[in-house]
Structure formats: C-alpha cells, structure tokens
Amino acid sequence: MPTYAYQAVDGSGKRTRGQAQAASSGALARTLEERGLFVLDVAESSEAAGARRGFRLGRRREVLEVTRALAALLPVGMPLAQALNAASGVASGDVKAALQEVRARVERGDTLSTALAEHRKLFSPLYVGLVRAGERSGDIDAAFGRLSAQLERDEALRGKILSASIYPMLLATAGSVAVTVLLFFVLPRFVTLLEGSGAKLPRSTATLLAVSAGLHRLWPVLLLIPLAIAAFAAWATNTDEGRRVWSTILLSLPGVRTLRRYALAGRFARLVGVLLGGGAPLLTALDDTVESIGDPLARDDTIRIRTKVREGSSLRAAVAESSLFPPMLAQLIGVGEDAGQLRVFLTKSADIFEERTERATQRLATFLEPAMIVMFGAIVAFVALSLLQAIYGINANSFK
C-alpha cells in the first residue's frame, strides 16, 4: 500500500503529524476521523512518490498480468467480484490496493468501468473505455481478452523501440565521456609543455587549447546543462504546454517526423479499431480515443475528426484532411468503409503503421550508430593530430 503523510488535530486542539499506509488518501482520512482526529491534510509522502515513479514499469507489467488473469477467469463463469479478488493475487502495492477498492465498489453496485475510472494512473482511458464498451454490449469477457491482447502488443512494440535505441544511447554516452576526458584532463597536461617551448603553435593546436581553456573557465555553466535538460524533460512530461512543445519539436525534426507520424497513425487506428471491436459506436469510440491518445497534436486532430464525423462526414473524408496522419491511413479506412469492415481495416492499418514505426526506428538507430562513430572519431582524430603537429614542431625547432 502507498504511504501518506498527514496533518490532523485531536479533540484538545493539539496538532499531529505522521505517516501511515492506506489504500487511498480517502481511506486514511476516514481511519483518522474514526480515531477522533480532525484531518487537515493528507498527501502522498515524497519517499513513496519517488518509489512509485521508480516502479512505474513494474506497475505496467502488473496491470498486464491482472488483465490476463481476468481474461482467463471471466470466460469460465467466475463472478466478477470473485475474479477481481483472485486477480489481485498476481499484483502488489498500488495495483493490488486499487483492485481491492474496485472489487469493493463493484460489490456495492457500481459498474466496473466507473470503479476503474477512479484509478486513472493505473487504468488508462482506453482501458476504461474498452471495459465500458464491453458492459454496454454485455460481453465483458471479450473486452478483457481484447485488452490483454492490446496491452501485450503495446508492451512488445515499446520493448522493440527501446532495444533499438539502447546502443546509440550507450555510444553517445561513451563518446561524450571520452571527449570530456580529452578536453578536461588530457589537454591541460600538454599546455605547459606546448606554451613553454617558445615555438609557434599550429593554428589547429592553438584553437584546440583555446577551446579547452574556455571550457575550464565555463565548467560551472556546463553543469547547468544536465539540470536544464532535466527541468525541460519534467516540464515536457508533466504540463500540457510542455507536451505540446515537445510534440511540435519531434514533428519538425527531419529524421523523426516520419517515424512520429507512423506511430501516431498506428495509435489512432488501434484505439478506434479496438473500441469499435468492443461494441462502441463510432462517435463514442472517437470520444474515448480523444481521452486516450497522449500526444496533444494528435488529440487536436482527433477532436477535429470527431467533429467532422458528428456533422455527417465519413471517417475517411475526415482523416484525409489531416496534415498529421499519413494519406495511406485515409485510403485504408475508405476501403474498410466501402467493404463494411471498418474495424478490420483499422486493425490492419494499425498493424501496418506499427510495423513501419518499428522499421523506421531501426533504420534511424542504424544510421545514428555510424554517424556518432564518425563524429566522435573525427573529434578524437582532430585532438590527436593537433597535439602531434605541435609536438613535431617543438622537436623540429630543438634541432635547429
């Protein structure tokens, strides 16, 4: 269970502070009130928040395991509350506590989608939307089967993209460390020798020494660069404006733009297709897609598409007007509408664009590897040649 820090006042007016574990902040507040305390504030402790961020990947895997368990238990006729209780056995921490709360609410008469919607950090709008669509169609078993397949597909795609990105990131880190060592530790050892020789330094060597001296003077400013990057990453992750700026940057980069468009097109097609497969009408599926798609620019475009469809336009015509999604998406949607198989062709579109995203990521990683090797190799070669030139000049002067 998560840990919460609380402030409360007892019957005599004495202020009390402390920390306690509870399924939620509301549950802790009720417990404290039952002890005769007047609760002033309940918030997740900073230590617990840090631990929760660190285990975000683990929570995602636990949600997948829970979904798999429900997809297996519900079709055999197990009651929903009992299935939720059994599925909580494969989870721990936040996920287990959330499932217990969900089970309690279901037993009190709430719908499963309503109970899941109270835990948006664990269960995405797509998750809730698919469950809601299953409840409408009376086929909640199939909804969890589709959810399990979707989460597994997302996890596999995420893993492939991460695997393709690891080596370029390691190469960039190693190259940066090597260049830093050269400029900050190796070059200063030659400065006294070169400047005390009295010989005229080659222009390349003089430039190199000037750069090294400047970096030594500005090293406090250089330390701010990682802090600035971390601050920008936090802003781009946690604020709507930051996410919008970051999305705009990605779509303006020549090598990344095509990859990003493929990824967003695949995500849009997958979301709408899965929701339609769950029994949701097209407009409802588009409503849930607006809530589920994370990219702000893609969300804006989805809102525009939803408005066009609500006004009577076909999905193909609405998507064709998009400057974000590739034209191929509208063509495939059109074929699906003409054949009366929109959901099938949306799923096929998602498969195509996800495969293209994976291939584009691998091509980009393949290009970056030799590019970084050449760049860092050129820097090291320039440093070595500049020093050798200067040393050769000093030795030549000594024999005159």
Overview of this structure, please?
The protein has 400 residues and is mainly alpha-helical. It is built from 17 helices and 3 strands. It has helices at residues 25-34, 46-54, 56-73, 80-87, 93-107, 112-117, 125-137, 140-196, 203-217, 219-238, 240-252, 254-277, 282-292, 296-310, 315-320, 327-339, 342-398; strands spanning 3-9, 15-21, 38-44. A 3-stranded antiparallel β-sheet has the order 2-1-3. A hairpin with a 5-residue loop joins strand 1 and strand 2 (15-21). Helix 3 (56-73) runs antiparallel to helix 8. The longest helix has 57 residues, at 140-196. The radius of gyration is 29 Å and the shape is globular. The termini are far apart.
Provide the descriptors you would attach to this structure in a database record:
single chain, 400 residues, mainly alpha, 3-stranded antiparallel β-sheet, globular
Order of helices and strands: EEHEHHHHHHHHHHHHHHHH
Radius of gyration: 29 Å
The unreliable regions are 46-56
| pLDDT averaged over residues | 78
| Total count of strands | 3
The structural class is mainly alpha
Helix percentage = over 70%
User: What is the number of helices?
Assistant: 17
Morphology call: globular
What does the oligomeric state look like here?
A: single chain
Largest sheet: 3 strands, antiparallel
Distance between the termini: 80 Å
The spatial strand order of the largest sheet comes to: 2-1-3
Strand fraction equals 5-15%
